[in-house]
Design brief:
Helix content: 25-40%
CATH topology of the largest domain: Arc Repressor Mutant, subunit A
Strand order of the largest sheet: 4-3-5
Structural class: alpha+beta
Order of helices and strands: HHHHEEEEHEH
Largest sheet: 3 strands, mixed
Radius of gyration: 17 Å
């Protein structure tokens, strides 16, 4: 898995001109290496307990900056908060439509970006592979 480290996030933010504040450090520390897929509100609630001065806007803006820098991927949800993924390796997200849990499914994908470029002349800038359904835990309840 290609999971971006805390130090890589800090350096990328600094290189992009962002000040590395205590709040941004807390956000990066909370996000780096996570295998779950938190929302902005979840991150805010987790950080707010130790840093009550942090704002929801700061969390939102920092996570979006990391997405823009291609250090996180944003998973869109139609009816609830978008979630963030630290795993940049091509994979499939298994999304439970009942509880909202997201699991990474690491499998060799059928079409690689290089193959699309070679065969179709299509240059890929992003991808999204998702399966939506019901997780085992929700099905057995």
């Amino acid at each position: 898995m290609n999971i971006i480290s805390k130090q890589d996030m800090i350096e990328a933010l600094r290189d992009a001109g962002f000040r590395i504040t205590r709040q941004r450090l807390a956000i990066v520390a909370q996000m780096a290496g996570r295998l779950d897929h938190p929302s902005v509100k979840q991150m805010y609630n987790e950080i707010n307990t130790s840093k009550p001065e942090i704002s929801l806007a700061t969390v939102y803006n920092t996570l979006n900056a990391l997405v823009d820098l291609r250090l996180l991927k944003e998973i869109e949800f139609e009816e609830s908060d978008n979630r963030f993924d630290t795993n940049l390796t091509p994979h499939i997200n298994l999304i439970c439509t009942v509880c909202g849990r997201i699991d990474d499914y690491m499998v060799k994908l059928p079409v690689r970006s290089s193959k699309l470029a070679r065969e179709k002349g299509f240059e890929t800038s992003d991808y999204c592979l998702e399966y939506r359904g019901t997780c085992n835990s929700c099905r057995t309840k």
